[in-house]
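Long-time lurker. I teach an intro course on protein structure, and each term I like to show students one example going from raw sequence to a predicted 3D structure in token notation. This year I'd like something fresh instead of my usual example. Would anyone be willing to generate the tokens for the chain below so I can use it in lecture? Attribution to the forum is fine with me.
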Amino acid sequence: MSEWVYLAVAIAVTCGFAVGLGWMRGRRKSDSEDPTETPDVIEYMTMMIGVVYAIVLGLAIAGVWEERNAAETTVIQEAQALHEVHERVSTYPAAERERVRDDVESYVHYAVKTEWPHMVEHGELTDRGDRMLRRLRADVTDYEPETMQQAQSYQAVVDQVAEADTARNARGDSAEPTMPGVVWIGLYAGAIVSVGMLFALQIQRSGRELVLAGIFSALIAFLLFLVWHFDAPFARGLEEPTQAFTSLFPHATG
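-- Reply from a regular --
Happy to contribute to a lecture. Here you go:
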């Protein structure tokens, strides 16, 4: 299913649970129970729990969003560096130029078509991709410039290969979800406590309060979905994760 289907189901279940629980408690209330006599300490605790949980949830969203932007920048840097290598070898002799360009296009094709699905599924890069990039580096560094123009291009090409390698390593570091499991436990526990404290305030007494409880629960479910969505940028967080490669190398990735 699409992640948006998961979001709709999560919101519907969370909202329905909160409203259903409030409705059931409302039916089972005793006549002697006065909802206006909620102890002040419960109101204070509810407020503090809400504030603390909002801070933690906000930090989690900010963290995964930052990782998402870093992952997008990494992909752009890798693709742009390889494109620079592909174009700057235009001053090389025909044989060396075609060999380097074939290495670049083969690597890009493999990275997009084969390595990317593997990275999303297993959270790591492939050994074959490492070997292909090492072969590109070897073909670049083994060439001996014969003219001043070729020498200038040579150094620039070597630098761009190094930048592509650095960006590739960063892409591998961002392949797995960034949020530790213990943080997820805290986020889920905080959501349960925050919603549960609403019923300690006895807000289940009217239809209007039930609706507000449902909206509050749906909001928490949506924010948790955002954390989950951006926690794996290459799998979900980026709309077109390989667009940087496909736009610069349409013939190699088509």
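Some talking points for your students: The chain has a mean pLDDT of 83. Residues 40-88 form the longest helix (49 residues).
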